[in-house]
Design goal:
Number of helices: 3
Helix content: 25-40%
Oligomer: single chain
Number of domains: 1
Shape: globular
Order of helices and strands: EEHEHHE
Largest sheet: 2 strands, antiparallel
Mean pLDDT: 80
Strand content: 15-25%
Number of strands: 4
Length: 99
């Protein structure tokens, strides 16, 4: 399940929509994903967005942030399926985050 479904929908086809109770950061998104998985048992994998979920500044992926997110996800019983990397820095490879 993509992590963006738990947060604000900022731009694109969704405009500036913020659903009630939207997650404010990746840790809250992990909490929400874990809760849904506990309820359904059907969604143990998440797909992150490099710039929204694994970055300090929203412009460049950060390996240390990614390592922390990976650890936090595993503690919640979640694993990773894929990553979105729009405008991802050419100096870093998204694959490095989840090996």
């Amino acid at each position: 399940m993509p992590t963006w479904i738990f947060g604000e929908f900022g731009g694109g086809r969704f405009g500036e929509y913020s659903p009630p109770g939207a997650a404010r950061n990746i840790l809250e998104k992990l909490d929400d994903a874990s809760f849904i998985h506990k309820l359904t048992g059907a969604t143990p994998r998440i797909a992150t967005h490099i710039l929204w979920d694994l970055s300090k500044d929203g412009y460049e992926g950060d390996l240390e942030v990614a390592k922390k997110v990976k650890k936090e996800a595993r503690q919640r019983g979640l694993d990773f399926r894929g990553n979105k990397s729009y405008l991802f820095s050419a100096r870093l490879s998204p694959g490095k985050f989840f090996r």
